[in-house]
Design brief:
alpha+beta, globular, 24% strand
Length: 344
């Protein structure tokens, strides 16, 4: 008797929410699909890129799909400006100009669009960066979720600065410009009605003036990164990997607001993986650490700047670790996928 065995079925690979989270799944998507099609990048993947042949100019692009559109401390319009301005700033650049593209779902109230655009325009004006071009598309009901925004920015590097995720060095001091976890927990609480939004607000704000304050330190500023998707955990792991160094931070030194800690306890989240939109991590040479802290604290956006760790002279290269409150060490893992979807 012949028994025909069915051919094994393999489910077609599909894109997951986690592929857009800034963690390991995002890295896999880039390495397996995106980069082979467009060409491998030279050096690490940064928040913004130097223009070929023009290392004084920097370019970045980002898309924003945050839900809800409005939340305490911001909205999708101001967030779109701040996010792109900050990506330019993390390469040591002053923003020169922005483009804005809108994908609008049919049926969006014009009053909502007017509010978003008013906020976007004000954010750009406050940051001192003009919106010089853009595009508008409208899609049918159900083809998008109300409103998506893409912004592209061009900036010019502050001459003494050329930070890169590949430039962290043993002995570097790790500085953080302010508390973590505010943006992600605020957006999630607003969306899900958790009740924490009355106690916290997103930290969304531009950081280019903070970077300008560090410019006099020049080559002593090795790395700048704003810990957005994947939070501080993702940023530290990316820097440790790209620089091939061992990074260690002190749990007691990382500022976590009480409301953020409470929300994370409720949801089973680690504050280190929660997104931020208005704080910056900096790796600076040890001899420049105090001057960098003073410069950061001289501005409102860096008033709560602290030292949170260092790059070890010995340790597991490419890894980030946390010294706990009881003195033990634990590995800070790279987030796998999307724990907090639609927050930027």
């Amino acid at each position: 008797m012949n028994i025909d065995c069915p051919t094994p079925r393999h489910e077609e690979e599909v894109v997951l929410l986690g592929h857009g989270a800034g963690g390991r799944l995002t890295e896999e998507l880039l390495e397996s699909v995106v980069l082979p099609a467009v060409g491998e990048a030279e050096g690490p993947l940064e928040d913004a890129a130097l223009l070929p042949g023009r290392p004084d100019l920097v370019m970045s692009t980002d898309s924003f799909v945050v839900s809800p559109l409005f939340f305490p401390g911001g909205d999708i319009g101001s967030l779109a400006v701040h996010g792109t301005v900050n990506d330019l700033a993390m390469r040591g650049a002053q923003p020169l100009a922005l483009s804005v593209s809108l994908i609008i779902e049919e049926g969006l109230p014009l009053s909502v669009l007017r509010s978003v655009m008013a906020s976007l325009g004000k954010a750009a004006q406050d940051a001192g960066v003009p919106v010089i071009t853009g595009d508008t598309k409208v899609v049918g009901r159900g083809a998008a979720d109300r409103l998506f925004i893409n912004t592209t920015g061009v900036g010019r590097r502050y001459a003494p600065l050329c930070p890169s995720a590949a430039d962290a060095r043993p002995g570097d001091v790790i500085l953080l410009s302010g508390p973590i976890g505010l943006h992600g927990t605020t957006v999630l609480s607003t969306r899900e009605g958790l009740g924490f939004e009355g106690d916290i607000a997103s930290d969304s704000r531009p950081l280019h003036r903070l970077v300008h304050a560090l410019a006099p330190l020049g080559a002593a500023v090795h790395v700048l990164r704003d810990p957005t998707r994947g939070g501080l955990a993702a940023s530290l792991n990316e820097i440790a990997r790209d620089s091939s160094v061992a990074v260690e931070i002190e749990e007691s030194a990382v500022p976590v607001p009480e409301a953020v800690a409470s929300a994370c306890d409720l949801l089973g989240l680690d504050p280190l993986v929660v997104a931020n939109e208005g704080c910056m991590v900096a790796f600076v040479a040890p001899e420049a650490a105090e001057d960098a802290l003073t410069a950061m604290r001289s501005l409102p956006e860096g008033a709560q700047a602290v030292r949170i760790g260092e790059v070890l002279h010995e340790g597991p290269r490419g890894r980030a670790t946390l010294r706990t409150l009881v003195g033990a060490r634990r590995i800070v893992e790279m987030p796998l996928g999307e724990q907090l979807p639609r927050i930027c």
